[in-house]
Amino acid sequence: MSVLEVRNLSVELMTTAGVIRAVDGITFSIDPRQTVTIIGESGSGKSTTAMGLLRLLPDDLAVISGHAVLDGVDVVTEPKKFAKLRGRSVALIPQDAMTALSPVHTIGRQLGEAVLRKGAAPKAEVARRSLELLEQVRIPDPAVQLKKYPHQLSGGMLQRVLIAMALAVDPVLLVADEPTSALDVTVQAGILDLLLELQERTQVAILMITHDLGVARLVSDRIHVMKDGRFVESGEVEQIVENPQTEYTKKLLAAVPKLGHWDGEPHADSTQASLDGARS
Ligand SMILES: Nc1ncnc2c1ncn2[C@@H]1O[C@H](COP(=O)(O)OP(=O)(O)OP(=O)(O)O)[C@@H](O)[C@H]1O
Ligand SMILES: [Mg+2]
To answer: Distance between CA atoms of 136 and 112, rounded to whole angstroms?
Structure first.
C-alpha cells in the first residue's frame, strides 16, 4: 500500500497580482522505502506542492483541491485529522537549516522537543534518544554537539541535525525541499548518502524536491518533471535520465555539469564524500 497517494492535486495562490494556479492537477504516489522526486525549474510549483501536502500554506492565501491520502488521512478533505499527523507521520527537511532552527536554543533542547513530539518521556530517556539520533546521522561527539547553539555548527552538520529532528518522530514520509542546495558539493553528497542509508534502515518514504537532475539521479526511484504546475514527464529514474521525452527535461539534463556512467547506484566515491561531510 502506498504511503502517499496524490490525485488531481491543485493549489491556487491568492497573490496581489491575482490568483495563480501554482499546482495544476498533479497525480502521483509513493510506496514505503521509495524515493520519488519532483524536479523542475524555479517557479514551477515544487515548493507549493510540498507545502500544500503538509498543509503549511495559510488557508486565506492558498486554496487546495483534489486528494492526497497520507497514512490513511486525506490531507485535503480532512485537515483537522491531518493536523494531528503533521510532525508525526510526516516530517519536513527544509532547505535552509540556519533559519529552520532557533538561534537562541541549544541543539539538545530543539532535538529534545522533536523527541517529545512523538510522546511524553522522562528526561533521561529524551537525552538518550537525542544522543542516539545524532549518532544515527553520523555527527561526531554527539554529547558535545547537544550543548552547542546552531551558529557553532557548519551547514552540513546543521542539515544532519534537521534530519535527526525529522527522524525523531519515526515518520512514514520525509518531505525534503532542496535539502542540500545550500551546501557545497562534497557535503551535499554526504547528506544524500545519509538519507539513503537511513531510508534503507527505517523504510521511510521520501518525497525529494530539487531543481538538480544530478541530485535526482542519485536518490530517486521515480521522477516527475514539473513545469508551470503540471507534470510534463514521469518515469523511472533510468528512463528520465537516459531517454528524456520532452525538450524541457532535456534542458534540465543539459544543466547538469557532468554526468558520469549511470549504473543505478550512488557513485563509489560518494562514501568518501560522506566521510568528508561528517568531518566538515
Ligand atoms: N508567497 C507567494 N506569493 C506570490 N506568488 C507566489 C508565492 N509563492 C509562490 N508563488 C508563485 O507560485 C509559483 C510556484 O512557486 P514555487 O515556490 O512553488 O516554485 P518552486 O518550483 O519551488 O521554485 P524554486 O525552485 O525557486 O524554489 C511561482 O509562479 C511563484 O511565483
Ligand atoms: Mg521551491
So the answer is: 15
